[in-house]
Amino acid sequence: MQPLPDLSIRQLEYLVAVAEEPTWAVAAERVGVSASALSQGLAELERRVGVALFDRDGRRRLVRPSAAPVVAHARQVLALTHDLAGWADRVRTGRSGALRLGMIDAAAVVHLPDQLRRFRTGHPDVDLRLRVAPSAELLDLLVAGELDLVVCVDPPTPVGGIDTAPLLTEDLAVYAPPGHPTGPPTTWGPWVLFPAGSHTRALVVDELRQLGAPIDVVAESHQPDVLREMVQLGVGWTVLPTSQAEHGDRPLHRRRKLTSRRLVLATRSGSVHDPAADELAASLAARRGLT
Q: Which CATH class is domain 78-164+264-290?
Protein backbone atom coordinates (compact mmCIF):
# COMPACT_ATOMS: atom_id res chain seq x y z
CA MET A 1 0.00 0.00 0.00
CA GLN A 2 1.31 3.43 -0.94
CA PRO A 3 2.19 5.53 2.15
CA LEU A 4 -0.08 8.49 2.81
CA PRO A 5 1.35 11.99 2.33
CA ASP A 6 2.12 13.74 5.61
CA LEU A 7 -0.15 16.76 5.19
CA SER A 8 -0.82 19.29 7.93
CA ILE A 9 -4.12 21.04 8.66
CA ARG A 10 -2.26 24.33 8.38
CA GLN A 11 -1.10 23.55 4.84
CA LEU A 12 -4.64 22.63 3.80
CA GLU A 13 -5.87 25.89 5.33
CA TYR A 14 -3.31 27.78 3.24
CA LEU A 15 -4.51 26.05 0.06
CA VAL A 16 -8.17 26.86 0.67
CA ALA A 17 -7.27 30.49 1.42
CA VAL A 18 -5.36 31.01 -1.84
CA ALA A 19 -8.13 29.25 -3.77
CA GLU A 20 -10.77 31.61 -2.35
CA GLU A 21 -9.00 34.96 -2.02
CA PRO A 22 -8.13 37.32 -4.90
CA THR A 23 -4.40 37.54 -4.05
CA TRP A 24 -1.84 35.63 -2.01
CA ALA A 25 -1.34 38.71 0.15
CA VAL A 26 -5.02 38.67 1.14
CA ALA A 27 -4.84 34.90 1.68
CA ALA A 28 -1.81 35.32 3.94
CA GLU A 29 -3.64 37.97 5.97
CA ARG A 30 -6.67 35.68 6.28
CA VAL A 31 -4.64 32.82 7.79
CA GLY A 32 -2.46 35.14 9.90
CA VAL A 33 0.99 34.52 8.38
CA SER A 34 3.43 36.41 6.20
CA ALA A 35 3.31 35.99 2.43
CA SER A 36 6.68 34.21 2.53
CA ALA A 37 5.47 31.75 5.19
CA LEU A 38 2.36 31.09 3.10
CA SER A 39 4.48 30.46 0.02
CA GLN A 40 6.82 28.10 1.90
CA GLY A 41 3.92 26.17 3.40
CA LEU A 42 2.28 25.70 0.01
CA ALA A 43 5.55 24.67 -1.62
CA GLU A 44 5.89 21.98 1.05
CA LEU A 45 2.26 20.90 0.50
CA GLU A 46 2.90 20.60 -3.23
CA ARG A 47 6.02 18.54 -2.55
CA ARG A 48 4.22 16.19 -0.19
CA VAL A 49 1.21 15.71 -2.49
CA GLY A 50 3.60 15.05 -5.36
CA VAL A 51 1.44 16.87 -7.93
CA ALA A 52 1.81 20.40 -9.28
CA LEU A 53 -0.91 22.56 -7.74
CA PHE A 54 -0.10 26.01 -9.16
CA ASP A 55 0.52 27.73 -12.49
CA ARG A 56 2.44 30.96 -12.99
CA ASP A 57 0.77 33.96 -14.60
CA GLY A 58 3.55 36.50 -14.76
CA ARG A 59 4.54 37.06 -11.14
CA ARG A 60 1.30 35.55 -9.85
CA ARG A 61 0.67 31.93 -8.95
CA LEU A 62 -2.81 30.51 -9.54
CA VAL A 63 -4.36 27.27 -8.38
CA ARG A 64 -4.48 24.90 -11.34
CA PRO A 65 -7.94 23.68 -12.44
CA SER A 66 -6.52 20.15 -12.19
CA ALA A 67 -5.91 20.77 -8.47
CA ALA A 68 -9.67 21.04 -7.79
CA PRO A 69 -9.80 17.58 -6.11
CA VAL A 70 -7.04 18.63 -3.70
CA VAL A 71 -8.87 21.86 -2.86
CA ALA A 72 -12.14 19.96 -2.36
CA HIS A 73 -10.35 17.48 -0.07
CA ALA A 74 -8.81 20.36 1.88
CA ARG A 75 -12.19 22.02 2.39
CA GLN A 76 -13.74 18.76 3.61
CA VAL A 77 -10.89 18.00 6.01
CA LEU A 78 -10.99 21.51 7.45
CA ALA A 79 -14.76 21.35 7.93
CA LEU A 80 -14.57 17.98 9.71
CA THR A 81 -11.67 19.20 11.85
CA HIS A 82 -13.72 22.25 12.90
CA ASP A 83 -16.57 19.86 13.80
CA LEU A 84 -14.21 17.83 15.96
CA ALA A 85 -12.83 20.94 17.66
CA GLY A 86 -16.35 22.18 18.37
CA TRP A 87 -17.36 18.82 19.81
CA ALA A 88 -14.26 18.73 22.05
CA ASP A 89 -14.98 22.25 23.29
CA ARG A 90 -18.58 21.31 24.17
CA VAL A 91 -17.41 18.21 26.04
CA ARG A 92 -14.69 20.14 27.86
CA THR A 93 -16.79 23.15 28.88
CA GLY A 94 -20.29 21.66 29.11
CA ARG A 95 -21.66 24.44 26.91
CA SER A 96 -24.07 23.76 24.06
CA GLY A 97 -22.53 26.38 21.78
CA ALA A 98 -23.86 27.62 18.45
CA LEU A 99 -25.88 25.62 15.96
CA ARG A 100 -25.69 27.04 12.44
CA LEU A 101 -28.69 26.25 10.25
CA GLY A 102 -29.14 27.20 6.59
CA MET A 103 -32.53 27.24 4.87
CA ILE A 104 -34.07 28.36 1.63
CA ASP A 105 -36.80 30.93 2.19
CA ALA A 106 -39.72 28.54 1.59
CA ALA A 107 -38.44 26.20 4.31
CA ALA A 108 -37.84 28.98 6.84
CA VAL A 109 -41.02 30.98 6.22
CA VAL A 110 -43.62 28.48 4.97
CA HIS A 111 -42.82 24.89 5.85
CA LEU A 112 -40.75 24.73 9.04
CA PRO A 113 -41.22 27.85 11.22
CA ASP A 114 -43.14 25.89 13.87
CA GLN A 115 -40.31 23.38 14.23
CA LEU A 116 -37.79 26.21 14.61
CA ARG A 117 -39.93 27.96 17.22
CA ARG A 118 -40.33 24.78 19.25
CA PHE A 119 -36.61 24.06 19.12
CA ARG A 120 -35.72 27.59 20.27
CA THR A 121 -38.23 27.37 23.13
CA GLY A 122 -37.05 23.95 24.22
CA HIS A 123 -33.32 24.73 23.94
CA PRO A 124 -32.70 28.24 25.32
CA ASP A 125 -29.05 27.27 25.93
CA VAL A 126 -28.41 26.63 22.22
CA ASP A 127 -27.40 29.64 20.12
CA LEU A 128 -29.39 28.81 16.96
CA ARG A 129 -28.14 30.92 14.06
CA LEU A 130 -30.27 30.87 10.92
CA ARG A 131 -29.05 31.82 7.46
CA VAL A 132 -31.55 32.10 4.60
CA ALA A 133 -30.07 31.85 1.10
CA PRO A 134 -30.37 29.95 -2.20
CA SER A 135 -29.64 26.21 -2.19
CA ALA A 136 -26.29 26.28 -4.02
CA GLU A 137 -24.90 28.94 -1.67
CA LEU A 138 -26.05 27.02 1.40
CA LEU A 139 -24.44 23.78 0.20
CA ASP A 140 -21.16 25.60 -0.46
CA LEU A 141 -21.23 26.93 3.10
CA LEU A 142 -22.02 23.47 4.45
CA VAL A 143 -19.06 21.95 2.58
CA ALA A 144 -16.83 24.76 3.88
CA GLY A 145 -17.85 24.05 7.48
CA GLU A 146 -19.67 27.35 7.96
CA LEU A 147 -23.07 25.70 8.47
CA ASP A 148 -24.03 22.55 10.41
CA LEU A 149 -27.38 21.69 8.81
CA VAL A 150 -29.03 22.81 5.59
CA VAL A 151 -32.57 22.55 4.25
CA CYS A 152 -32.50 23.12 0.50
CA VAL A 153 -33.73 21.94 -2.88
CA ASP A 154 -32.37 18.51 -3.72
CA PRO A 155 -29.23 19.18 -5.82
CA PRO A 156 -29.34 17.87 -9.41
CA THR A 157 -26.10 15.92 -8.87
CA PRO A 158 -24.55 14.58 -5.64
CA VAL A 159 -22.30 16.99 -3.74
CA GLY A 160 -19.04 15.49 -2.47
CA GLY A 161 -18.87 15.20 1.31
CA ILE A 162 -22.60 15.84 1.76
CA ASP A 163 -25.39 13.44 2.80
CA THR A 164 -29.03 14.30 2.06
CA ALA A 165 -32.33 12.96 3.37
CA PRO A 166 -35.74 13.82 1.86
CA LEU A 167 -37.98 16.15 3.87
CA LEU A 168 -40.93 17.12 1.71
CA THR A 169 -42.10 17.68 -1.84
CA GLU A 170 -43.88 20.81 -3.03
CA ASP A 171 -45.67 21.71 -6.25
CA LEU A 172 -44.36 24.28 -8.73
CA ALA A 173 -46.99 25.96 -10.91
CA VAL A 174 -47.19 28.37 -13.84
CA TYR A 175 -48.58 31.88 -13.22
CA ALA A 176 -49.45 34.57 -15.77
CA PRO A 177 -50.04 38.32 -15.35
CA PRO A 178 -53.65 39.31 -14.55
CA GLY A 179 -55.92 39.35 -17.59
CA HIS A 180 -53.51 37.44 -19.80
CA PRO A 181 -55.49 35.10 -22.08
CA THR A 182 -55.18 31.36 -21.64
CA GLY A 183 -53.23 29.65 -24.39
CA PRO A 184 -50.99 26.69 -25.18
CA PRO A 185 -47.43 26.56 -23.81
CA THR A 186 -46.06 27.89 -27.10
CA THR A 187 -47.71 31.25 -26.23
CA TRP A 188 -46.38 31.50 -22.67
CA GLY A 189 -43.89 34.13 -21.57
CA PRO A 190 -41.81 36.20 -21.34
CA TRP A 191 -40.59 34.93 -17.98
CA VAL A 192 -39.48 36.26 -14.60
CA LEU A 193 -37.67 33.38 -12.87
CA PHE A 194 -35.21 32.37 -10.20
CA PRO A 195 -31.65 33.17 -11.37
CA ALA A 196 -29.67 30.90 -13.66
CA GLY A 197 -27.67 28.43 -11.60
CA SER A 198 -30.41 27.85 -9.02
CA HIS A 199 -31.63 24.28 -8.58
CA THR A 200 -35.28 25.30 -9.03
CA ARG A 201 -34.52 27.27 -12.21
CA ALA A 202 -32.94 24.15 -13.75
CA LEU A 203 -36.07 22.10 -12.96
CA VAL A 204 -38.37 24.78 -14.35
CA VAL A 205 -36.49 25.38 -17.59
CA ASP A 206 -36.27 21.65 -18.29
CA GLU A 207 -40.05 21.22 -17.87
CA LEU A 208 -40.91 24.30 -19.94
CA ARG A 209 -38.70 23.10 -22.79
CA GLN A 210 -40.40 19.71 -22.76
CA LEU A 211 -43.75 21.50 -23.15
CA GLY A 212 -42.43 23.61 -26.04
CA ALA A 213 -42.68 26.91 -24.18
CA PRO A 214 -40.25 29.62 -25.37
CA ILE A 215 -37.65 30.51 -22.73
CA ASP A 216 -37.43 34.31 -22.89
CA VAL A 217 -36.30 35.46 -19.42
CA VAL A 218 -36.64 39.21 -18.89
CA ALA A 219 -35.98 39.41 -15.13
CA GLU A 220 -34.55 37.27 -12.33
CA SER A 221 -34.74 37.25 -8.54
CA HIS A 222 -34.06 34.81 -5.71
CA GLN A 223 -37.02 36.37 -3.85
CA PRO A 224 -40.43 34.78 -4.56
CA ASP A 225 -42.21 37.93 -3.38
CA VAL A 226 -40.30 39.98 -5.95
CA LEU A 227 -41.26 37.54 -8.72
CA ARG A 228 -44.89 37.67 -7.57
CA GLU A 229 -44.91 41.45 -7.77
CA MET A 230 -43.36 41.39 -11.25
CA VAL A 231 -46.18 39.12 -12.40
CA GLN A 232 -48.80 41.39 -10.81
CA LEU A 233 -47.22 44.34 -12.65
CA GLY A 234 -47.39 42.49 -15.97
CA VAL A 235 -43.62 42.16 -16.45
CA GLY A 236 -43.90 38.47 -17.27
CA TRP A 237 -44.97 34.95 -16.36
CA THR A 238 -43.36 32.93 -13.59
CA VAL A 239 -43.12 29.49 -12.02
CA LEU A 240 -43.23 29.40 -8.22
CA PRO A 241 -43.98 27.01 -5.38
CA THR A 242 -47.73 27.12 -4.88
CA SER A 243 -47.21 27.72 -1.16
CA GLN A 244 -45.49 31.03 -1.91
CA ALA A 245 -47.47 32.17 -4.97
CA GLU A 246 -50.99 31.67 -3.63
CA HIS A 247 -50.85 33.15 -0.14
CA GLY A 248 -51.46 36.67 1.16
CA ASP A 249 -53.75 39.46 0.00
CA ARG A 250 -52.84 39.30 -3.70
CA PRO A 251 -52.37 35.64 -4.62
CA LEU A 252 -51.44 34.71 -8.14
CA HIS A 253 -53.88 32.71 -10.22
CA ARG A 254 -52.53 29.28 -11.09
CA ARG A 255 -52.57 28.37 -14.80
CA ARG A 256 -51.39 24.79 -14.30
CA LYS A 257 -49.09 22.64 -12.23
CA LEU A 258 -45.71 22.35 -13.95
CA THR A 259 -43.66 19.97 -11.80
CA SER A 260 -42.56 19.52 -8.19
CA ARG A 261 -39.34 19.94 -6.26
CA ARG A 262 -37.99 17.98 -3.31
CA LEU A 263 -36.57 19.65 -0.24
CA VAL A 264 -33.85 17.75 1.60
CA LEU A 265 -31.94 17.94 4.85
CA ALA A 266 -28.20 18.10 4.09
CA THR A 267 -25.38 17.31 6.52
CA ARG A 268 -21.63 16.76 6.24
CA SER A 269 -20.61 13.14 5.70
CA GLY A 270 -18.58 11.67 8.56
CA SER A 271 -18.98 14.66 10.85
CA VAL A 272 -18.74 14.29 14.64
CA HIS A 273 -22.35 14.46 15.78
CA ASP A 274 -23.62 17.33 17.88
CA PRO A 275 -26.59 16.14 20.00
CA ALA A 276 -28.39 19.48 19.53
CA ALA A 277 -27.93 19.27 15.75
CA ASP A 278 -29.20 15.68 15.76
CA GLU A 279 -32.28 16.70 17.75
CA LEU A 280 -33.05 19.60 15.42
CA ALA A 281 -32.57 17.33 12.40
CA ALA A 282 -35.02 14.82 13.89
CA SER A 283 -37.54 17.60 14.51
CA LEU A 284 -37.27 18.84 10.94
CA ALA A 285 -37.50 15.30 9.58
CA ALA A 286 -40.75 14.80 11.50
CA ARG A 287 -42.27 17.34 9.10
CA ARG A 288 -41.49 14.95 6.24
CA GLY A 289 -44.35 14.73 3.78
CA LEU A 290 -46.04 16.12 0.71
CA THR A 291 -47.34 19.68 0.55
A: alpha beta
